[in-house]
Amino acid sequence: MPHRPILAAIAAALLLCGPAAAEPRVGIIAECAACHGIDGIARDTEVPHIAGQNERYLYNQMMAFRSGKRAHKEMRYMARAMSVAEIAALAAYYAALPPR
């Protein structure tokens, strides 16, 4: 395959720069942890556990809160205060945690 070296180089570049770019700000994690827990395990029965949840699902739900498609006053406020990149990083962070 003639494109194999190019694909390998792109994959290596993503591995080298990916994790640093995907780190959410500590302040955002602290804000989410107030309800969902730093480990993604909520302490309140009314709040969902998000540790180990599917990354795409978490991202899509945050985007739905952000747009108002999914109604929840606090979550809409939180999502609107984040950039799309921060939402993606946060989804990756919580998806990488071990589920309960």
What does this structure look like?
With about 100 residues, the chain is mostly helical. It has one domain: Orthogonal Bundle (Cytochrome Bc1 Complex, Chain D, domain 2), CATH 1.10.760.10. The chain has five helices and no strands. It is globular, with a radius of gyration of 16 Å.
Properties at a glance:
single chain; 100 residues; globular; Cytochrome Bc1 Complex, Chain D, domain 2; mainly alpha
Task: Give a short synopsis of this structure.
The chain is mostly helical. The N and C termini lie far apart (43 Å).
* Average residue-wise pLDDT: 84
CATH level-two architecture: Orthogonal Bundle
Structural class: mainly alpha
Distance between the termini: 43 Å
Shape: globular
Quaternary organisation: single chain
Poorly predicted regions are 6-21
* Named CATH topology: Cytochrome Bc1 Complex, Chain D, domain 2
- Strand content is under 5%
What gyration radius follows from the Cα positions, in whole Å?
A: 16 Å
Blueprint (SSEs and pairs):
Blueprint: H1 4-21, H2 26-36, H3 55-67, H4 73-80, H5 84-96
